[in-house]
Amino acid sequence: MRSTVILGLHAHGRRLRGERIETIRQLEDKAVEWVAVLDPGMRSAFTAAACGLVANMPRGKRSVTVLVPRMEPPSFGARIDGSASSFICSASIFHSLMRLETLTSHVRLTFALLYAVMNNQIRVDRVAIRQLPLGEPESPIPLEHRKISLIMAHRGKVRHLACALSYIAKAARPEMTVRIGLDMDNAGAYERLVAKYPLAQFFRVSSPAAGPYVIRQLLAGRGRAPLLAFHDSDDISCFDRFTALSREMDATGCDLLGCHELRVDELNQEVTILRFPLDVSGSLREGPVHSMLHPSSIVRREAFFETGGFSTDRAIANDTQFLLRACFNSRIRNVDGFHYIRRKHAGALTVAPATGLDHPLRAELAQMWHRDFIEVMQGRMPLAESSLRAIPADRKHRLIRISLPENGHA
């Protein structure tokens, strides 16, 4: 606890004043508006950025901004850049956190806060992630493609989906339609969500346990918006995700765009920083390595279908296959920002024993896809004859719309 810096901040006229906090009583005795929990190594950068950070945390909004040190992104493959251990939040949020957690360390508090946010234990209006030192202010780039179709498959906990939808609803966004496909026998447990989000479109798949790629592919065909946004149902998006990625797409002219990842690891109780190469196409040309977090991405609808969309023959790993295939006809990038928070938990497809990253099938697929990727890249094999081609499921599936009857119940 001695190494943790906790500052209570308040506006004094046009100036921002801060005072180190040692006890909760100090927070209660002073007119504190925001609380910053800092790794000591972040204090100098925070001091320089504090006014800018607070300016984007409007009064009347319960806001959280996670702070990570700025680093040059990797040029080849993903890179773990340590743990996120600093944040600034509204004082009311910090009080809520203290009712759940004791003052132990900045690392523990950062995980405890995000865990509470992602499990709906603390109400938050705006979640953001900023790199320090802050970069240049964003130039006002007009959004050429405002309409977005967000697609999400779900087979898991109701509360995870509820949390994901709540932060999508709170996001600053261009015009967006949200479509959710439920991959389960009984959708009755989701009646309240259907009623709570009447502007979202809910579906159930005709043959449950179809897998996420069947549902995503079917949902992608439902709309005509020029951009498709992906989202895993156990994660959350920052409030600026859709505007930031839409602007970057318009500025760069790329076809598929993702961002860096902040991972809330419920198994190890830590918050991990992962950065990806900005030039994903260039990274993949150097070798077929993990270069993008798929659910963080948005794609031009036309490019998605020209690439062939998702293979639907398996319930795992086909986002990787899609990315490798897209490398041959799409410009792929990551924005140098954190706008997506991923949850790592025991039930995740990449963690559960039957589907996890250590499963032999994943190793077999990776070896086959990597071999064929190199063969296609070097011109020795047509893409259409490789294992990277879009492969449909043997069984036909369809989506059934879940709607509210006149009595208001799903």
Describe this protein's structure.
With 410 residues, this protein is α/β, with parallel strands linked by helices. 30% of the residues lie in helices and 25% in strands. A hairpin with a 4-residue loop joins strand 13 (256-265) and strand 14. The radius of gyration is 22 Å and the shape is globular. It starts with a strand and ends in an 8-residue tail after the last strand.
**How many structurally independent domains?**
2
| Succession of helices and strands | EEHEHEEEHHEEHEHEHEEHEEHEHHEHE
Query: Which whole number gives the mean pLDDT?
Result: 91
The helix content is 25-40%
Overall form: globular
Cα-atom Rg, whole angstroms? 22 Å
The major pleated sheet works out as:
11 strands, mixed
Structural class: alpha/beta
Report strand %.
25-35%
The rounded distance between the terminal residues' Cα atoms is 49 Å
Q: Give the name of the CATH superfamily of the largest domain.
A: Spore Coat Polysaccharide Biosynthesis Protein SpsA, Chain A
Task: Please give the CATH class of the largest domain.
Answer: Alpha Beta
Low-confidence stretches: none
Task: Count the E strands.
Answer: 17
The number of helical segments is 12
CATH topology of the largest domain: the name is: Spore Coat Polysaccharide Biosynthesis Protein SpsA, Chain A
CATH architecture of the largest domain: Alpha-Beta Complex
